Amino acid sequence: MWSFPFMVNAFRAGAVVAVVSAVMGYFVVLRRQTFAAHTLSTVAFPGASGAVLFGFSAVYGYFAVCVAAAVVIAALGWRRGGGGADESALTGTVQAFLLAAGFLFITLYKGLLGGPQTILFGTFLGITTSQVNVLLGVGAVVLAVLVLIGRPLLFASIDPQAAAGRGVPVRALSVAFLVLLGAATAEVSQITGTLLVFALMVVPAATAQTMTGRPSTGIALSVVLALAATWLGLTTAYYRPYPLGFFVTTYAFAGYLLARSGRALHSRLGRTGMPQLRKGATA
């Protein structure tokens, strides 16, 4: 497997994507903005297919449309906790139209590798060194900005009212985070596909927050889980003729189930032991 340059590039790209998505995903779950991540992943599909149709690389379509959509969402006032029913209906309508537009672009361009499957469910074929460099550059910028705003962003994510009262620019942080989320979503889409961005953007972070409430430990654990899911998915997809996104999602979801099961078992054992401790204390 390691004798093929495209597999080496796939593991490099997967590592970059896993780290960026895990760190961003921790804040996505903490801020309850999974719906925003879903919206951005949806618009990535027509962005990539449209770029290919008009003679550009799909990479540029991913980034251009995802970041533009993030700016639009921020301009419309999308906030933590979601908007009203009218906003949700409008967003859902736009998502449906853009998804249909993406399928139209793919139909018009008949030479697209693998048809819609490549963009929707991801692939490790054809990842070049230049693509890895682009992902690395964008990922470095996203993480650098996140480090700069990380502490106030964490405060604003946990208690936005208290943060605003202390003078934290909550609104500006929300806009900056959405733009970073757009760039991160564009990165993740190139590995998992646009429909399975949650595999790396949400599931490892949700698993980590199930296991620990400490932000630093949770972020580190989220990165480890995302790397494991990505590399295991790439290895399995090399030997099996099925979409990469399916394997990445399966491994990430299995980790989440194990974490939830372990937490439930721990809670049950704790409740079972309490009566015995009380009885011993009474005796």
UniProtKB/TrEMBL annotation:
<dbReference type="InterPro" id="IPR001626">
    <property type="entry name" value="ABC_TroCD"/>
</dbReference>
<feature type="transmembrane region" description="Helical">
    <location>
        <begin position="242"/>
        <end position="259"/>
    </location>
</feature>
<feature type="transmembrane region" description="Helical">
    <location>
        <begin position="218"/>
        <end position="236"/>
    </location>
</feature>
<keyword id="KW-0812">Transmembrane</keyword>
<keyword id="KW-0472">Membrane</keyword>
<dbReference type="Pfam" id="PF00950">
    <property type="entry name" value="ABC-3"/>
</dbReference>
<dbReference type="InterPro" id="IPR037294">
    <property type="entry name" value="ABC_BtuC-like"/>
</dbReference>
<feature type="transmembrane region" description="Helical">
    <location>
        <begin position="90"/>
        <end position="112"/>
    </location>
</feature>
<keyword id="KW-1133">Transmembrane helix</keyword>
<comment type="similarity">
    <text>Belongs to the ABC-3 integral membrane protein family.</text>
</comment>
<keyword id="KW-0813">Transport</keyword>
<feature type="transmembrane region" description="Helical">
    <location>
        <begin position="6"/>
        <end position="28"/>
    </location>
</feature>
<feature type="transmembrane region" description="Helical">
    <location>
        <begin position="132"/>
        <end position="156"/>
    </location>
</feature>
<protein>
    <submittedName>
        <fullName>Metal ABC transporter permease</fullName>
    </submittedName>
</protein>
<feature type="transmembrane region" description="Helical">
    <location>
        <begin position="60"/>
        <end position="78"/>
    </location>
</feature>
